[in-house]
Amino acid sequence: MRIECPFCGERDVSEFAYLGDAGYRRPPADSQGLAERFYEAVYLRENPAGPHQELWYHAAGCLSWLRVTRNTRTHEIIAVGLATQAPGS
Question: Residues 8-46, buried b or exposed e (16+ Cβ, 10 A)?
């Protein structure tokens, strides 16, 4: 699998570290039922088949955080942008 880094160009996936679901938001520390919400986030996540937004870190390159839209069935990379950008920017 190859990822097109906005700064470095197309690179092998071995240069990147996978973080996970780009849509996950950590619950606030003072929220009700915090332990249960973390349990659900870690163990009961969705496992989508098809396009999915993920966070990747270019560890062996420019050190950028990227938002990658990847088809989980085919591993096709559909879109890549900086993690700080809104999807589709």
Answer: eeebeeebbeeeeebeeeeeeeeeeeeeeeeeeeeeeee
